[in-house]
Amino acid sequence: MDIKIDLGTVVVFDLDDTLYNELDFLKSAYQSIASLLEPKDWKPLYSKMFSLYRCDINVFEFISIAYNIEIGQLVEMYRNHHPNIQLFDGVLDVFDAIKSKDGKIGIITDGRSKTQRAKLESLAILDYLDGIVISEEIGFEKPNLANFKAIENSISGNVYYYIADNLKKDFIAPNALGWKSVALIDNGKNIHYESHKHSDSHNLPQDFILNFKEIKII
């Protein structure tokens, strides 16, 4: 798809499962926890943790009993570890192309401030961003209009795009505000994979892409 960029164009992105796979954050967290609990030989524990997760068995409950550690402590370890995650192919090419034409880039994401900002830092994209809206910091989660109006207030523009993945909550607000909405189709690893349940007109984006290489900045 073509996106025409000029000084008045603001392209806003979701974070989890849009710029990278959130499953990779989970795997990174599990590796970090396993390394702390079994520093000399962490891989067998990590393997078991990930297998339990894939089987919908409570991983933290297992760890809590096996290692006599509070579940709350494990949750904090999960949220606060330094993530090892990578951008999807083509993301930086799109970012560079937007910036080369004087466009602006924003992020709207749900989650805890410390965790989401650690992800942005790990992905090394902070220097590209003209505005960041995180649900914990603003006090609202998508699909609340406030999150999107916060971007409009912080980044002035004539045309706004929102590129995201979750049909349940990502496109209701931008559609209502007259933004252009684009869905990145699940690559088979998304945390939220029930898009078929949210096919009402207000949930649907205006366009779909399979990957970032389908975006052409003009």
Automatic annotation (TrEMBL):
Question: Which residue windows are coiled coil?
Answer: none
The molecular function terms in GO held by this entry are: hydrolase activity
Question: Magnesium: is it a keyword of this entry?
Answer: yes
Give the cofactors, semicolon-separated: Mg(2+)
Read off the SUPFAM superfamilies from this record: HAD-like (SSF56784)
| Transmembrane segments annotated in the record for this chain | none
Q: Does the keyword Hydrolase apply?
A: yes
Q: List UniProt keywords, sorted A-Z.
A: Hydrolase, Magnesium, Metal-binding
Protein's recorded name: HAD family hydrolase
**Source organism of this protein record:** Gelidibacter pelagius
